[in-house]
């Protein structure tokens, strides 16, 4: 067993530079995977902390599965269940105020003081707790009071749909979350929800079976309720999950490219140790022993690379979240919690890091075990791993042809599959294509480097298998850049089109969160009446929000006025047109967005069972349209009348208005600002300016993605450095001969640079082909998921960027091997075996 450890370590330490380069490939891939799998749990924990109930521990909580308010009729059912010792109703609303208020988001919780103290403990540090006789009184958490600059005896204002309400602070209490506790009747009045509650806190009898009580409660209350903990924000979770998938793709691709590098390295290891392997076999080592030695060596690199990758991934993850904090605070008023490191993220990273490394070394290890003893002891240096090019080429050509055919079919899945087949096929064809590519690129290399270019071309042709692995890694990196460049152009077009159509009104009154709607406080009918009376306002309309479930899946429902919504805003229709709005007023009709139709499989005319606070209601789909608010999440648009009846929400979270022709903008702005003094929950924006700001933020986001693209080139650069360094080592004697017959150090350096550029240009050519195919597939997928108007755009900027980046990286990769080659001493090189 000791031999299986000492020999691999000796070989790794004997080639320090190569070991470093291959290990770095693993480190980078693992770091990306681990970092992005930290981000979702951390952000989910942040969201959960912002939506949790009051302080203290209860055994379980009963909530609506839609997270809406509900009638307290269920309170008696819960209280009379065997094993339940105490219950207390609560009405909770998260309140998010504009950043200008300097007030962090907090939970406003209405409760019955006497009953609430039977299920929770409140550590009051100043003043007193609420009493049953209190009305406009509040107990505030200490840290929130400090942030707001208030204390016992002070008053503060809270926004409600009907205006500002003044509350008097009667006590401060200790808790980890930002909370304001008020009497239950007060919060019900503030949000026009008389008699409604959002949660029932439950304490079970000592010794009772917790799970049995939970199951009995669930059976009694039915599927409309959740018994256990508060329901998470499903809309935000969907957005986070989508982002996680995209970022994980980057990490897996980085590991995949690293696998090419590892595979190439261990193929060369087998060639270099041919004589050593023969010696081991001659003294009694079996084929299995030789195979295991190579596998242990790859596993050691995987273990070391994974360990370092986990550490680097943690640093990357915390740095990314630190950078996101400003954006989250500005647009979502969220403060990130401490980084969460789930066990699943560690396991996934370890399995991928070590697994990919071992698999990459498997074929070279098997090849090492098949080295003939006598042939290995002879002093000939031939390629050990010989690919059956004919079979691989035939399979690769078949994949490419099939992929191209799929690209022109009307099925989204087949189009995406076709782009992947083109990628796989060109990877398999790379060894066969490299020689003609080198010949095709020969004039350019010869023009740049004259004699050195001819030698570089010969070196590539001499070992196309190894060079093809490096070219494939570079090809994949460039394909990603080109593909996502075209996809981003399409996304930007869809984004801008939806943005201008949905939020292109002259005046926008927006909440702090235009992503996590639940914390927003809307405005009621009185606000709209006063807004409509302002001279210069031609027309206005609002939009309300409520969460809901369809077939157990979370979704968002928006309420719009069928008569006025189309005058200030609008949906991008795939099925239907502006006349479809009128159908929303005729019964329970709804317009679904494209993701709703694609995900749940409905058609126009179908009836959809929607779980509402008042039970299941069936809505008939009359059109398919998408706007800026529903671009990423399953959404329905219903009339405001149905929203009030079925969901109990009549407040508008967004209000839009257009100016009358010739209106005095300054006077209108002053009048609207005066009106909004009583409704500080919304912020006034001029539509054109806000749209421009959003497009600028989108540009910044895409710029951040290009940084990730550049990072994806790292394994390819490492592969180029590794391949060139190995070539320098294998051609040590050849370099000595060239130096002996008069070649200068500069010529030797140019020889290595020429070979690097040749490999770089070959990888670029193949990468552009694959990238264009992948980009077409991704764009088609975007169009089918989000919008029928998503068109494919040729990524001129992405192509130029990819070509420039590839050539720069090729030059950078050649610097170290070129220096190494130029420093070879003639006498030692001529004696090298």
What would a concise description of this structure say?
The chain is an alpha+beta fold and 833 residues long. The protein has 28 helices and 20 strands. Strand 6 (155-160) and strand 7 (163-174) form a beta hairpin.
Describe it:
It is a single chain. It is elongated and about 100 Å long. Residues 50-56, 230-234 and 379-388 have low confidence and may be disordered. The chain has 833 residues and is of the alpha+beta class. Strand 6 (155-160) and strand 7 form a beta hairpin. The strands form 2 sheets. Strands 1, 2, 3, 4, 5, 6, 7, 8, 9 and 10 form a 10-stranded mixed beta sheet that branches. A 6-stranded mixed barrel has the order 12-13-18-15-17-16. It has 28 helices and 20 strands.
Q: In terms of per-residue confidence, which ranges show pLDDT below 50 for 5 or more consecutive residues?
A: 50-56, 230-234, 379-388
N- to C-terminal separation? 31 Å
Overall pLDDT score:
78
Structural class: alpha+beta
Shape: elongated
Share of residues in helices: 55-70%
Based on CA atoms alone, the radius of gyration comes out at 33 Å
User: How would you characterize the largest beta sheet?
Assistant: 10 strands, mixed
Task: Tell me the total number of β-strands.
Answer: 20
Number of helices: 28
Beta-strand percentage range: 15-25%
